[in-house]
Amino acid sequence: MSSKSRQKQPTFKAVAANDDLKYKRKYKELKKKIREMEEENEKLSLKLTRAKKNIQRLKIERSFLFDRLEQSQPTNESESDTTSSPPRAIDSEEDLSSSAEELLEDHHRTGKRKKQNRDPNAPKRPRNAFLMYCKSQRDQAREENQNKGFQDVTRILSQKWKDLPNEEKQKYYDMYNKEKERYEIEMSSYVGTSSQFGYIQPEESTRNEVITRFDNNVSNHHHHNDISGERSSLTTAETSRVATTSTLESPYNNNHSYEQYIDENERGIGSEYEEEEFVETKDDVKLDIGGDDYESDTDSEMVDELAADINDNNKRRHSKAEREEAMECEDEVRMEEDDENEKKDNEGEAADSKEENLVNETGTSENDEI
DNA sequence: GAGCCTTTGAAGGAA
DNA sequence: TTCCTTCAAAGGCTC
Fold first, then answer.
1. Basic and acidic residues composition bias: which ranges (predicted)?
2. In Å, what is the separation between the CA of A246 and the C1' of B1?
3. I need a labelling partner for A368 at 20 to 30 A (CA). Which of A6, A154, A183, A273 fits?
4. Distance A115 CA to C6 C1' (A)
């Protein structure tokens, strides 16, 4: 009996050690997963920040366009009443309103939008599952239906698509999801780049057409007249700064007055709501680059300051990574020490039980002898 | 060279 | 929420 228990002892220990190893492995896996989730979370936060900034910009743009439309409305009515008035030189307000209204009316009436010159640098929209299917099957379908035209082949493919079992379709939906991910990633880092094409936001072509028409009118007008009031001040007050910022970050490269409007709104001249939103946006930027304030007056200084901050931030990140690594090493060392201690304890226990067994055995033999 | 034809499906805006 | 529109792809055809 005692010899059996002696044989079982190391097996039990081996199992316990095995369990420990398992837990250790599991612990490491979980730690890795947490790290991955944190990284993903960081990415998503960045994406959210960008989206917020974009929304803020669009809000300002919208209020700008509505302001222009509202301001120009009464002028138009009075103009239409005075039929005998002599023809005037270009009136930016009138031209703007007629262009914008015409465009908006056109859009509402037809419900269709004219095709836009899309920025060739803009990411392509993802192809849906059916288009993926067409791409892979079209050649074969054309070979099978050589006498049929292109549209007919598409029609055949659509019929085939409908008849396709869901498991087969799933393959193409997966492909679509991958394309979609690619598109989202590209869009998150995409800022309108080409001044030739302007900044054309997907699904925002009408808005941009209005803006383009407006700014064409404004720029034309500036060559002919000196406008008094708001727009004049808009175009002259901070031209140099706007020119710099527009080349640095503006998607609307030709729009000084428009840029100026955005710029002023973003610095808090707009409504309280906008101001509040702007503070949030600026805070987001601070978060992105390390949480410091920027006090530079000029753009070049600000760029230097930003670069310095990014370097600092990289250093911080680097040291953070090092700290994490060191902590991990410490954990591992601690775990190894624990293991060793446990091993020693187990060995001690084994020795004790061995001694106990020996005592018991000797005890029984003595008794036998007696 | 631009736009149309055909199809499905995703996405976004308007009502 | 529903409806409508646009845009992705393919290549030939028309203006």
1. 279-289, 341-357
2. 32
3. A6
4. 9
Residue A74 main-chain phi, psi, to 5 deg: -65, -35
Contact (CB, 8 A) for A189 and A60 = no
For the CA atoms of A206, A210, A212, A213, what is the dihedral angle to 10 degrees? 130
Tokens 């079982």 sit at which residue? A8
- Report which residue is nearest nucleotide B5 when distances run from CA to C1': A151
Can you tell me the distance from the alpha carbon of A25 to that of A92, in angstroms, rounded to the nearest whole number? 72
pTM of the shown model: 0.35
CA of A105 to C1' of C15 (A): 28
Domains plus CATH for chain A?
Answer: 123-189 (1.10.30.10)
A176 touches strand B (CB under 7 A): yes
Bases in strand C with any atom closer than 7 Å to a protein CB: 4-12
Interatomic distance A167 CA / B6 C1' (Å): 26
